[in-house]
Specification:
The protein is an alpha/beta fold. The protein has one domain: TIM Barrel (Alpha-Beta Barrel), CATH 3.20.20. The protein has 10 helices and 10 strands. The strands form 2 sheets. An 8-stranded parallel β-sheet has the order 3-4-5-6-7-8-9-10. It has a two-stranded antiparallel sheet with strand order 1-2. Helix 5 (about 135-145) links the parallel strand 7 (about 130) and strand 8. Helix 1 runs parallel beside helix 9 (about 230-235) and helix 7 (about 195-200) crosses helix 8. The chain is globular, with a radius of gyration of 18 Å.
C-alpha cells in the first residue's frame, strides 16, 4: 500500500475501502474482516450509510480499530453549526472514534457547518476534516471564509467522468481528491475492450487499469465490493504503472457526464 500525506501531515492510504450499502451486522463483520486481511487500512462511512454502529462492532470484535483510519460524514439535514456538532457527537458515539469527518454535500449553510468541523478539529477530536461533492466554486466560497482548509474532497471520478476543473483546483490548494464510484456503478467502462487490452499488457484487469489511471492522475480511490477476490484486485495497484501513451488514452475517455447527481442540482437546491 502507498500513502498520501495530507497537508496537516496525516498519512492516508491511497486506496480506501468504501462501505456504502453494507448494513447487516454479520455482513459488515465479514466484509471488514476480509478487507483488512486484503490489506485495507482505511474505511469510509457516513451517517447516511446507517452502518456506523455495525462498523464499530466489527472493528472491536476483530481488535483492529487502532490500526485503521475511519471516515464519517454529516448528512444534509444537519443545518447550521449546532446541528453539525450534535450529529458529530452521534457519529462519534456510534463509531467510538472518528478519525476523519466531512460535510457530505455542499448543502445550505455550509459555511456555518464548516465552522463546526474546524472547531472539532481544533479540539483534537479528529485527525482531519474534509468535504464531499464540492465543486470548484463551492471550494472558492469556502476558502474565502475558512480558517482551516479542507484536507480532503471526495468527488465522483472515473475514466468516463473527470471534473478536471475541480481536481486541478484541489491539487493547487493542497486538497487531497478522493474518487468515489471509481469503477462507475453504471455504464460500460468495465466492458471497454480497449481498456482490457491495456490491462493485458501489464497482466492486470480492466478495473485495475481504471483505478491505476486515477492514482497516476494524483487521486486516491474509494472502491467498494463485498467479494474477497475483488477486494484483492482493487488494492493490487502498486506493482505497475501506465505508460504516458496509455494515460493519454484513458484521459480521452472522459465524457463529461456524471453518473450521479450534480452537486449544483441536488434536491436541496430544487
Amino acid at each position: 500500500m502507498e500513502y498520501i500525506v495530507l497537508e496537516n501531515g496525516l498519512s492516508l492510504p491511497k486506496v480506501v475501502f468504501g462501505t456504502y450499502r453494507i448494513h447487516d451486522q454479520d455482513d459488515v463483520r465479514r466484509v471488514i474482516s476480509d478487507a483488512y486481511a486484503s490489506g485495507y487500512r482505511a474505511f469510509d462511512s457516513a451517517a447516511y450509510y446507517k452502518n456506523e454502529a455495525e462498523l464499530r462492532e466489527a472493528f472491536d470484535t476483530l481488535k483492529i480499530r487502532d490500526q485503521v483510519l475511519v471516515t464519517s460524514k454529516v448528512w444534509n439535514d444537519a443545518h447550521g453549526y449546532e446541528a453539525v456538532m450534535s450529529e458529530f457527537e452521534k457519529s462519534e458515539a456510534r463509531l467510538g472514534k472518528v478519525d476523519i469527518f466531512m460535510l457530505h454535500w455542499p448543502a445550505d449553510e455550509f459555511l456555518s457547518r464548516w465552522k463546526a468541523l474546524e472547531d472539532i478539529y481544533a479540539a483534537g477530536r479528529v485527525k482531519a476534516i474534509g468535504v464531499s461533492n464540492f465543486k470548484k466554486h463551492h471550494l472558492e466560497t469556502l476558502l474565502a471564509h475558512a480558517k482551516i482548509k479542507p484536507m480532503i474532497n471526495q468527488i465522483e471520478a472515473h475514466a468516463y467522468f473527470m471534473d478536471y476543473e475541480t481536481i486541478s483546483y484541489c491539487q493547487a490548494q493542497g486538497i487531497c481528491v478522493q474518487a468515489w464510484r471509481p469503477l462507475m456503478r453504471t455504464g460500460d467502462m468495465l466492458q471497454n475492450q480497449e481498456i482490457a487490452q491495456i490491462g493485458q499488457k501489464y497482466g492486470k484487469t480492466t478495473a485495475q487499469v481504471c483505478l491505476r489511471f486515477l492514482l497516476q492522475s494524483g487521486l486516491s480511490v474509494l472502491p467498494k465490493t463485498v467479494k474477497p477476490d475483488r477486494m484483492k484486485e482493487n488494492i493490487e495497484l502498486f506493482d505497475f504503472s501506465l505508460s504516458a501513451k496509455d494515460m493519454e488514452f484513458m484521459r480521452g475517455l472522459n465524457t463529461g457526464r456524471r453518473t450521479a447527481d450534480d452537486p449544483d442540482d441536488y434536491p436541496w437546491n430544487r
